[in-house]
Write a structure and sequence with these properties.
heterodimer, A: mainly alpha, Rna Polymerase Sigma Factor, Chain: A, Arc Repressor Mutant, subunit A, 2 domains, elongated, B: mainly alpha, 4 helices
Chain lengths: 191, 97
């Protein structure tokens, strides 16, 4: 019979460090998927996941157990990803004049006929990745959680530790900023 | 170009581009090895670390206050000393007559 998270946590806190491995095995796919939303390179993703589990292990005593362990771990994951974004604000000043051929073609198609440009195309996915990389950390996090992962403002507040009004303000600013980046991209492309 | 429409389309593209949850082979072993090699932080070492970090700002504040006290000397035109100020409440007033 599979041990519950509470049993495993009790064992780890009691000194059985090896028991922590079963928590890692159980939750690492979810942590990997989340980290891949924010980091592109696989070595960066692995570093984020390692940091999440290291933090979880060292702070395990502070887990009160009033919510599932998974929620506590995902909060830690999102906050670690946010710290990563703040530390790695590279490519922010990139311009769009050097868009790849595929992305440029996709934009051309969209310009000619918005319905004709498929949102399944890899070019569209690459474009949104490049746009998100231009956003500052809070804007990228809030756009990812609210618009892409479809989480509610309350959930985002719980995950990030920001107040509900702050999430709303940051979401408003992030959408405006994203529009500005899109305008810049289209200007650079067509001027 | 319709920016709002483009934004909507790209967000939809991102939604459909869900990242994989694939885990590298034996990644949990890497975590466990890292845990074993990381130093165990007990309460005393945390307290010691915090004290060590606080030492430099405390010395800086002490030096700044020392310099300030030396510049604002109590003898600059007034006879009031620190001792007089502290004891003012308990010292009986001097009869001026």
């Amino acid at each position: 019979m599979e041990r519950s998270d509470e049993d495993i946590i009790r064992a780890v806190l009691g000194g059985d460090t090896e028991a922590f491995e079963s928590l890692v095995l159980k939750y690492q796919p979810r942590v990997f998927a989340t980290a891949r939303r924010y980091a592109r390179r696989e070595d960066e993703v692995q570093d984020i996941v390692q940091e999440v589990f290291m933090k979880a292990f060292h702070k395990l005593a502070s887990f009160r157990g009033d919510a599932p362990f998974e929620h506590w771990l995902m909060r830690m994951t999102v906050r670690t990803c946010y710290d990563f974004l703040r530390l790695h604000q590279r490519n922010r000043e990139n311009n769009f004049t050097d868009l790849g051929d595929e992305e440029s073609d996709w934009l051309e198609r969209f310009n000619a006929n918005p319905a004709g440009a498929s949102d399944e195309a890899s070019a569209a996915k690459e474009l949104i990745r490049q746009i998100l990389e231009q956003l500052p950390a809070p804007a990228r996090l809030v756009i990812t959680l609210l618009e892409i992962e479809d989480k509610s403002v309350k959930e985002i507040s719980r995950l990030t530790g920001w107040s509900v009004p702050l999430v709303k303000v940051r979401a408003f600013r992030a959408r405006a900023l994203m529009r500005k980046v899109l305008e810049k991209m289209t200007r650079e492309k067509y001027l | 170009m319709n920016i709002a429409e483009l934004q909507k389309k790209l967000i939809t593209a991102a939604r459909k581009d869900a990242p994989t949850d694939r885990v590298p082979y034996a990644f949990e072993k890497r975590i466990m090895a890292a845990l074993k090699s990381s130093p165990v932080a007990d309460a005393w070492s945390l307290w010691g670390g915090a004290l060590l970090k606080a030492a430099a700002p405390c010395v800086a504040i002490m030096l700044a206050l020392g310099v300030w006290a030396a510049c604002v000397s109590p003898t600059n035109g007034s006879d009031l000393t620190l001792e007089d100020t502290v004891l003012a409440a308990v010292t009986p007033p001097v009869d001026m007559e």
